[in-house]
Amino acid sequence: MEMLKVDNVAVSVGEKVVLKNVSISVDRNEVLFLLGPNGAGKSTLLRALVGFPGYNVVSGKIYFEGEDITGVPMETRVAKGLAIAHQIPPKLLGVRVRQLLEALCRRNKCDVHEIANDLGILHLLDREFGKGFSGGELKRVEIATLLAQKPKLALIDEPDSGVDVDSIEIIAKAIKKVIEVSPYRSAIIVTHSALISRYIEPTKVCILMSGTVKICNGKELIEEVFRYGFRELV
Ligand code: ADP
Ligand code: MG
């Protein structure tokens, strides 16, 4: 039985059907890299998987550990072991980074100082989550929340976009740790960066285009994408 099974899913956002006929699976010990051009629906897929409000599965089913979680609220999915690091994280005004990480670490037994130190965000702990953060700071804090959640399956949306090379290294190492502390060592990572694949080896690579999964294969697919582009591949 796969840990995550997405069976012929269509997703609408508002009036618009963004994803159709999407089928993928992720097993324990599997790291799936999801690639695709801008606007393909990658963020929509991750948000639909975690049950983010407004991202509605209009047909098909999502199973997690054999259980049908289609339509199950986000809090319940998170409690079951799914967690997301958003491409553009929603701001949590009035909540300090420290408060959020402490709450998560109380539940999941982790060390806030260690996580903040790993990600170089000690100086952000007493700031409101997201308020006035640079793109790179937002990414680091977002990955910190994943580390504090120890999810069975981490859904990580473009951790490498808009960040400098040094930050990518820190973020990639932290993602590696997210996978190591995960009970099932599994993740779906949406990425545009060959740099991330220097630190984290995907077990599977899928390409999403125009709202549907066109092809899944081994890690050699990344090289082909960089060489030929998406259109030539499918
Ligand atoms: P990607 O992450 O692959 O760049 P997205 O999932 O963000 O793509 O978007 C896919 C398509 O869905 C785009 O055409 C985008 O405009 C549309 N879309 C996503 N979210 C919304 C939304 N909240 N309202 C309207 N359209 C949306
Ligand atoms: Mg996106």
How would you portray this structure in words?
By secondary structure, the protein is an alpha/beta fold. It has a single domain, classed as 3-Layer(aba) Sandwich (Rossmann fold). The protein is built from 8 helices and 12 strands. It has a 6-stranded mixed β-sheet with strand order 6-9-10-3-11-12, sandwiched between helices. It has a 4-stranded antiparallel β-sheet with strand order 2-1-4-5. The chain is globular and about 45 Å long. The two termini are 29 Å apart. The chain binds adenosine-5'-diphosphate and magnesium ion. The site of magnesium ion has 5 residues, from helix 1.
Attribute tags:
Rossmann fold, four-stranded antiparallel beta sheet, six-stranded mixed beta sheet, single chain, alpha/beta, 234 residues, binds magnesium ion, binds adenosine-5'-diphosphate, 36% helix, 12 strands
| Element-level helix/strand string | EEEHEEHEEHHEHEHEHEEH
Q: Name the CATH superfamily assignment.
A: P-loop containing nucleotide triphosphate hydrolases
Q: Give the rounded overall mean pLDDT.
A: 94
Tell me what the CATH architecture is.
3-Layer(aba) Sandwich
Q: Return residue spans where pLDDT drops below 50 for at least 5 consecutive residues.
A: none
Shape designation: globular
- Strand content is 25-35%
Q: How many beta-strand runs?
A: 12
Number of helices: 8
Cα separation of the termini: 29 Å
